[in-house]
Amino acid sequence: MTFVLGLTGSIGMGKSTTASLFRAEGVPVHDADLAVHELYRGRAAPLVEEAFPGTLRDGIVDRAELGRRVLQEPEALRRLEAIVHPLVRDEEERFLAAARDARAGLAVLDIPLLLETGGETRCDAVAVVSAPAEVQRERVLARPGMDAARFEAILAKQMPDAEKRRRAHFHVDTGRGLEPARAEVRAILRALAGRSGGRIGRG
Description:
The chain has 203 residues and is an alpha/beta fold. The protein has helices at 15-24, 32-40, 45-51, 63-70, 74-101, 133-141, 148-156, 161-167, 178-192; strands spanning 3-8, 29-31, 56-57, 60-61, 106-110, 125-130, 170-173.
């Protein structure tokens, strides 16, 4: 059975880069953020507009506008999650079914809030991506439209990095550059080679 590895990490830690390293090794990766992007252009768009009128632009959810509506409003965020999460799970299940049909030995679920949402119960093991706090901050504040207040608001909704690392089976440090991170990804692949899924952390 395909072994399912959950890949997670806080904002600015290098999770997307690490996901690309797994892909480069031939591992199928499901990107939850990309799934949301695609849903905002498709199935989720009319549902989001109904719940948050004025958030569509040319039939596509304006993520910046939606973010302004929900970032500091817990009840609004819960309403959005109730719409989007089931659709993302549906896409995830399709991905895993395809991986099993292809007899993939390993499949990666790239999910930013994996541990915060209890998603680790759908995985056989968890890898967390992290970097020193100063590196994280520098990366995030360099993003367009980002400022310190927004960064802190996002961090407040995420589990502390130290706790994520404590709860993970594997750790990838992106603070030392791409090649050391690639070496750590390859070490994870060696550790999981031949492992059958369905034994660790399923709920």
